[in-house]
C-alpha cells in the first residue's frame, strides 16, 4: 500500500506539472488527467495481482491455482458490497471528478491533492478487499468447506464485527464486511 501511495503521489505531481505547462488549458487538463488515471489503474492492477498471489501463498491451507490476471479482472468487475461500486466505474468517476475540479477551480493544486486523497482511499480499501478475496480463493481451492470470522479484540471493533466474531460460515456464504477499513479476517475451519 505504501508503495502504491508513493507512486500515486509522484504521478499526481507529474500530472499537475504537465497540466501547468499548458497553463491548465481545459482540453489539456482532460487529456493529462485521463492519462494519469490510466497509469494509476495500471499500477494498482499490477500491485493487486502481486498482493493476491502473496496472500494466496500465505493462506493455510491453499490450493495450487494462484490468482491470475483473469481472476483479478473478474474480481475488479464485480459489484463490491463494502464500497458500493464497481472498481472500474469508480476509476472513471474519480477521473472525471478530478478533471472537472481542476478545470473549474482557481486552486488547481488543491484539486490534484483532493484527487490523490480519493484515489488513495479507494486503493487502500481495495488492497484489503483483494487480500480477503485471495484468502477465500485459497481456502476454496484447498477444499475448505467452512470458515470462522475473526475480529480484532480491541475497543475499535464495531458492533457488527463483534457479533460476527467466532461465527462459522459455509465458505460460499461468508458475509461481506460491513464497513470501510474493516480489520476482520477469516480462518479455515478444518474438519477432522
3D structure, described in words:
- With 192 residues, the chain is mostly helical.
- The chain folds into 2 domains: 2-143, no CATH class; 145-192, no CATH class.
- The protein has helices spanning 2-21, 26-58, 69-76, 87-104, 108-141, 159-164, and strands at residues 79-80, 85-86, 146-150, 168-170, 185-189.
- The chain has a 3-stranded antiparallel β-sheet, with helices on one face.
Which strand-content bin applies to the residues? 5-15%
Number of domains: 2
Tell me the Rg in angstroms. Answer: 19 Å
Distance between the termini: 37 Å
Helix fraction, binned, reads: 55-70%
* Overall pLDDT: 95
- Shape summary: elongated
Total number of beta strands: 5
Structural class: mainly alpha
The order of strands across the largest sheet is: 4-3-5
